[in-house]
Please model this.
Amino acid sequence: MSQKNETTLLVLTFLITVGLVGGGFWWFANFFGTTIKPEKTSQNTSNNVRIFAEVKNVPSGLISYGGSTTWASIRKEIDPVIQNVWPQFQLRYTDPDKQAPSSTTGISMLLKSQLDFAQASRPIANNEYEAAQKRGIKLKEIPVAIDGLAVVVHPSLNITGLTIDQYEKIFAGKITNWQEVGGKNLKIQPYGKQGRDTGEHFKLTNTTTEALRLVAADLGGIYWASAPLLVPQCGVKPLALGRTPNKLVYPYKLPFVPVSECPGKRNQVNTEVFRSGEYPLSRRLAVVVKENGQFEQQAGEAYANLLLTNQGQELISKAGFVRLR
Model:
């Protein structure tokens, strides 16, 4: 046999072998219900987008937004970066008239078309859904981060923490003396926030800053708000909270930094216990959007998608909150 014929035969034999092996593999896979699929390429969604510049459908124009003061540190970290990357996406924070900003005022302003989207630190309430329905509006909340609530008292108060039951009864006005929860014989004075807290037992304030100043000067004072806003403060002491007395969880990282060492050192939020659910008071922060197919929806969804990028989640973590992704 010539060398040319021998080469041709070897090539044919190789091709037949490959065909048989390939066909056998195809039969085996199909017989046993296995489907071999090509690997899909990643799509540009908020699940895998890395940086702000990769986000699609970011509109141009002036965008009014507002809502919960819990978002203040997030706005401080994230919004300037968004503006640098997307200067045509012109974010304008808007306060309510004659009221303190909150989730409630933000959603109310959204329903009145005073905002393009709202920032909330709690779920949309049933009465807010009903109010939206009456106006022919459909609301949607897009979670972007996890937050924990902290309770702060005067630094001299000699208790370590509270159970959730004790916490709820104090702010409901049912427990009125620190002696009832293991402290000294001293009247409890809950401080609240306008538009958020109701009841004659509260001393209402306009801002968290004002409430912290008052608690720092009141031996019996107590106040609650977002942990990233309260835990690093120098003039108050955050309390541990627990579902039972023997399972109290600190909202800050141990060891505790006493007032005498602050502001040289500050307590840091223990985001891990919020992430794991070990801490009993955690919640999600969400962007509230009108589902109307118009500019407002596009603006709100674009903002949420920016925050859900890896870059946005890193900045949320830097602001003291737990990243959702």
About this structure: Residues 1-46 have pLDDT under 50 and may be disordered. Residues 110 and 117 are 6 Å apart (CA to CA). Residues 3-31 form the longest helix (29 residues).
